[in-house]
Write a structure and sequence with these properties.
- It is a single chain.
- This protein is mostly helical.
- It has 5 helices and no strands.
- It is globular, with a radius of gyration of 12 Å.
- It starts with a helix and ends in a 6-residue tail after the last helix.
- About 10% of the residues are buried.
């Protein structure tokens, strides 16, 4: 369950989260599946205990630089 502070942070940052969420959903089916599996994996590893992909995604993006870097790489930002 998300606490009130996290929910407020998520709401304030929607303008940053929605474009990234759209980019994720525009990826190929295989890549999108991998990203969503990683979201669930990070949820367990970081012990967020949240439900809902967008809720988990938003907390990971807003709080963990490591996850932002991985997501950027997964979405093709590291092409040479």
């Amino acid at each position: 369950m998300m606490n009130k502070k996290v929910r407020i942070l998520q709401t304030i940052n929607l303008f940053r989260l929605i474009p990234i969420w759209i980019i994720i959903n525009m990826q190929s089916v295989d890549r999108r599946k991998l990203i969503f599996e990683e979201i669930e994996h990070w949820n367990k590893c970081v012990q967020l205990n949240l439900k809902g992909k967008f809720n988990i995604f938003s907390v990971l993006i807003l709080k963990l630089k490591e996850y932002r870097s991985l997501l950027y790489y997964r979405c093709g930002g590291a092409k040479s």
